[in-house]
Specification:
The protein has 703 residues and is of the alpha/beta class. The chain is built from 29 helices and 21 strands.
C-alpha cells in the first residue's frame, strides 16, 4: 500500500489498534464522500482490511458497517453503474478481495449497532463472525424495486442460512429482528447492551486466532423446486432482480465461489441497466419519500392533532380509528348504537392480539393503544375534535346528515374530512357551514395494511385545510397524494376503467378465466372480475349512479351488471357473481354465462394484458390533463399503492414511458372499436408526435 493510498484510507476511516494487536475500523463520516464512487469507497475499505490482515502481528480485525447506514442514493448508483466495463471489473475485484480474506486465516468480526439493510448489510456478511445489538432490523428490501442487492450477498448468504432462506430473504422484501437473524444464522451473537459488542468481538477473536475455512463452503441445503415455484408464483417473472437471484442460486451449487462472484456481478449490472428498476425506484422510493416529506406541511410545523372523531364504526372507520390510536392520538369512534361502536373497537383488539402473538406489541402497549379509542353513540363525545373523519356508507344524504350533526363539536381550528371513494367533495361540502375547512380523505381497505391516502380538495377547500389533512395523513404514517374533485377522483376513476374493460371483454365473448389469468400475468394484484365480486355488483351499480353521465361502454356494463344482480348474482357475499363460491370448501370457480357464447376471434393473451394496462394509463392522462392530479408521480404512486397497478411499470405514466408514447397512442387508437374508453385526447397525440416522455431518469418532464 503506497503512502497516498494509506493517507486516503485514514481520512475515510477511523483505525484503532489495541495492545492485543486487534484492529477496529469504522467510517469517519455518516455520509459517503461525494467525490468517491461507492465501489471505489468500498475498495478503500477492503484494501485497508486486507493490508491490516497481512501484518504479521495482527491478531484480528473488527469493523463496523463501512457504508454509513441510511437511505441508499439510488440515483447515484444508477449513474455510477450505467453500462461501464470498468465498473464491472472493479466490482468483481472488490468482492474477490473479500473472498481472499479467508486465505489469510485471521478472524474478522463485523458489529451491528444500527438497523442494517440492502448493500450495507451485504458488506457485513464479508466477516467471519457477526455480532448485533438487540432489537435491530435486517433485510434486503431492494427486491421491492425490481433489484437484488449483489455485493456478494448471493455468494455469502447460502453458506450462512441456506439456499431456501437466502431466496426468501433476497426476494420477499421482508425484515427480521436481531433474534430472528440469530436463529437463522445471519447473526452469530446478540448483545444485551450495545457497548458489549466490541468486548464480545475481541473475546471471540482471542478464542479463534486462526479462522481456517474450506476453500469452497458447502451450501446448507439444496434449493427446492417448491421454494422457487412459490417465489415465481408471486413475482410472475416480472421483476428482474428476483429472476436474477433465482438464476444465481440455481447455479451456486455447481459453481466455485469465484465463478459465483463473476456470475453475480454480471447479472447485477444487467439488472441495474434494465428499465423496470429505475421506474420502480422513482415511484416507490423517491416518490414515496417526497410524499411523506415533512417539508410538505411547512405552513403547519406547530400544528397539533390531539383528538380525532370518526363517524361510522364499520370496516373503514374501525381501521382509521386503529391507525390513529397506534399513532398516539385520542379517538372517539361514533356509531348509531354503542354496540356497533364497541364492535368497531373490537377490530383494533383483534389486530393488537395478532401483533401480541408475533411479539411486535407487548401487553402494556396494547392496553395503551386500546385505551385511546372511545366507542360511543353520543355525538357530544366528539366535542373538541381537531379533526372529524366521516366514514359512513356511500350515500349522499346520509353523509350530509352526519356531517351537519357533528359539525358543532369540531374544534375552532379543526377540519372535517369525508372518506369517500367517488362522491364529489364540493357537493358534500355544502352540508358543512364552512366549506373551506372541508376536504376528502380517501383511505383504502384494510386501512392497517394499505398505506395510501388520497386527499381530495373541493373547489372551496383552502390551503390551510389541505395542510392539516396532509399533517393528519403523515401522523397516521400514510402516504398521501393530492387530487382534485371530479367523478371518482383519481384512483377510483381509473380503477373503474379497469373493471369496465373486464366486463367489456366478457361481453365480447372473451373467456372470463382467460381475462382473470392475464390480469394476474400483467402484474395486477387481483383480476377485474374477482374485484367486482369482492366489492359487490350492487355497490358498483351504486357508484355508476353517482356519475353525471355514462358513455355507451359504461351503459352496456351497467346493463349487464343490473341483469346479474336481478338474477341474484350479486357477488361474493351472495355466493354467486362472476364466480361461484363453495361455502364448505371456500373455493371459487369462474362462472361462464351460457347466454354469452365464447368468441371465435379470441384475443391473444398479450392483447388482453395490454388492454387492462393501457386503459388505466390512458384515463390517468385524462386526469392529468383535466387537473384532477397535478403531477405524474402522484398518478404513479396512486395507481400502484391504491389500486394494485402493475408495480414493475413504475405506475401508469411509467407504463406509458416503457411502451413509448407514439406506440402507446397508436395501440390505444387501434382499440377504439372496443368502446369510448379508448378515445385518445388530441393533446396526447401531439405529445406523441414530439416523442414526449413523462420522465427522464428520475426527473419529471411534466410542467
Amino acid at each position: 500500500m503506497d503512502e497516498n493510498n494509506r493517507f486516503l484510507k485514514q481520512s475515510l476511516f477511523h483505525i484503532e489498534r489495541d495492545n492485543q494487536q486487534i484492529t477496529t475500523i469504522s467510517p469517519l463520516s455518516k455520509v459517503l464522500p461525494e467525490q468517491l464512487h461507492m465501489v471505489d469507497y468500498l475498495l478503500q475499505f477492503v484494501d485497508l482490511v486486507t493490508f491490516t490482515l497481512q501484518q504479521k502481528d495482527t491478531t484480528g480485525v473488527i469493523y463496523y458497517c463501512p457504508i454509513p447506514v441510511g437511505k441508499i442514493e439510488y440515483a447515484q448508483l444508477f449513474n455510477q453503474f450505467s453500462s461501464s466495463d470498468s465498473t464491472a471489473s472493479t466490482l468483481k475485484s472488490l468482492i474477490l478481495k473479500t473472498l481472499a480474506w479467508k486465505e489469510l486465516n485471521k478472524p474478522i468480526v463485523s458489529i451491528f449497532t444500527e438497523n442494517c439493510t440492502d448493500i450495507p448489510l451485504a458488506t457485513m456478511l464479508w466477516a467471519g463472525y457477526r455480532i448485533a445489538s438487540q432489537k435491530l432490523k435486517f433485510g434486503f428490501p431492494e427486491s421491492k424495486y425490481g433489484l437484488f442487492t449483489g455485493f456478494g450477498s448471493t455468494v455469502y448468504l447460502p453458506s450462512l442460512i441456506g439456499n431456501s432462506a437466502t431466496l426468501n430473504l433476497l426476494t420477499q422484501g421482508k425484515f427480521m429482528n436481531s433474534e430472528e437473524a440469530y436463529k437463522q444464522g445471519l447473526i452469530d451473537e446478540v448483545t444485551q447492551q450495545q457497548d458489549e459488542g466490541i468486548l464480545l468481538a475481541k473475546k471471540w477473536i482471542l478464542k479463534n486466532p486462526l479462522l481456517i475455512l474450506d476453500k469452497e463452503t458447502k451450501q446448507k441445503d439444496q434449493l427446492s423446486p417448491e421454494a422457487i415455484l412459490n417465489v415465481q408464483r408471486k413475482a410472475r417473472g416480472l421483476y428482474p432482480g428476483t429472476n436474477a437471484v433465482i438464476e444465481l442460486l440455481k447455479k451456486r451449487a455447481s459453481s466455485t465461489s469465484i465463478q459465483a462472484i463473476e456470475q453475480e456481478v454480471t447479472l447485477y449490472l444487467e439488472v441495474l441497466n434494465r428499465p423496470e428498476p429505475l421506474q420502480m425506484i422513482r415511484t416507490l422510493y423517491y416518490g414515496v419519500q417526497d410524499a411523506q416529506s415533512p417539508s410538505r406541511i411547512g405552513l403547519l410545523n406547530n400544528y397539533t392533532l390531539n383528538k380525532i372523531g370518526i363517524l361510522g364504526a364499520g370496516m373503514m372507520g374501525s381501521g382509521i380509528a386503529y391507525e390513529a390510536a397506534r399513532a398516539g392520538i385520542e379517538v372517539v369512534l361514533k356509531d348509531v348504537t354503542i354496540i356497533q361502536a364497541e364492535r368497531g373497537k373490537a377490530y383494533s383488539t383483534q389486530l393488537c392480539e395478532k401483533l401480541l402473538a408475533l411479539g411486535i406489541l407487548n401487553q402494556f402497549q396494547q392496553e395503551q393503544l386500546l385505551s385511546r379509542i372511545k366507542p360511543t353513540e353520543k355525538v357530544g363525545d366528539l366535542n373538541g375534535s381537531d379533526c372529524i373523519i366521516e366514514a359512513v356508507f356511500e350515500d349522499f344524504s346520509l353523509k350530509a346528515a352526519v356531517t351537519q350533526e357533528s359539525l358543532p363539536y369540531l374544534a375552532d381550528n379543526g377540519f372535517f374530512a369525508s372518506n369517500t371513494t367517488s362522491l364529489p367533495i364540493t357537493e358534500l361540502a355544502k352540508a358543512a357551514h364552512g366549506s373551506k375547512s372541508f376536504i376528502g380523505m380517501h383511505f383504502f381497505s384494510p386501512v392497517d395494511r394499505m398505506p395510501l391516502v388520497e386527499i381530495i380538495c373541493g373547489k372551496e377547500t383552502d390551503e390551510i385545510t389541505l395542510q392539516k389533512a396532509l399533517t393528519t395523513a403523515l401522523k397516521l404514517n400514510k402516504i398521501p397524494i393530492i387530487v382534485h374533485d371530479g367523478p371518482g377522483f383519481f384512483t377510483s376513476r381509473i380503477f373503474f376503467n379497469y373493471l369496465l374493460e373486464g366486463i367489456t371483454m366478457v361481453l365480447e365473448g372473451i373467456s372470463p378465466l382467460l381475462i382473470e389469468e392475464e390480469a394476474i400475468a400483467a402484474g395486477f394484484a387481483v383480476g377485474p372480475l374477482a374485484v367486482l365480486d369482492e366489492i359487490s355488483l350492487e355497490l358498483m351499480l351504486h357508484v355508476y349512479d353517482q356519475f353525471p353521465a355514462l358513455h355507451a361502454s359504461q351503459q352496456r356494463a351497467y346493463s349487464y351488471l343490473k341483469k346479474m344482480v336481478d338474477q341474484g348474482r350479486k357477488g361474493k357475499k351472495s355466493g354467486v357473481g362472476f364466480y361461484d363460491y363453495d361455502i364448505e370448501s371456500k373455493q371459487k370457480t369462474i362462472w361462464k354465462n351460457p347466454m354469452i357464447p365464447l368468441s371465435e376471434n379470441t384475443l391473444t393473451p398479450s392483447i388482453i394484458r395490454k388492454r387492462l394496462l393501457h386503459v388505466m394509463a390512458l384515463d390517468s392522462y385524462r386526469c392529468l390533463e383535466a387537473g384532477i392530479i397535478d403531477r405524474p408521480i402522484d398518478g404513479d404512486i396512486g395507481s400502484i399503492l391504491g389500486v394494485g397497478y402493475a408495480s414493475y411499470t413504475g405506475g401508469v405514466f411509467g407504463h406509458i414511458d416503457l411502451t413509448t408514447l407514439p406506440i402507446f397512442v397508436a395501440e390505444c387508437e387501434a382499440l377504439y372499436a372496443y368502446g369510448e374508453q379508448w378515445n385518445v385526447p388530441e393533446s396526447l397525440k401531439e405529445l406523441a408526435n414530439r416523442n414526449f416522455k413523462f420522465y427522464t431518469g428520475f426527473l419529471s418532464n411534466w410542467h
